[in-house]
Amino acid sequence: FAGGHAFPAAALGLPDGFPDIIYSNNLTPDETGILDDTIEDITTMLLDGVDPEGEGLCPPMPAGPVAAFGGLTEEDATDLAEFIKALAPIENTIPNDCIPPG
Question: Residue 12 forms beta bridges with which residues?
């Protein structure tokens, strides 16, 4: 859950404009991860595919109503959020952010 796994943008089906390699984010409750995100924030991210600022989540996160997590119930998403927030914090600064085209 500390992130940093490399995914080729082409393998994720991303259009031109994204970095060639997308790195998974740190999902641990560390300051380099999701320390400031609440259970409610994470639940919303899983169910709606947007971060607390309303921005779409970076691939490869399969969140949102039409993605792989589309069938999650609110209870499922809350359980996952509580699990993630209970993980041990791991410091891991990710090499780059997902930068969508435009």
Answer: none
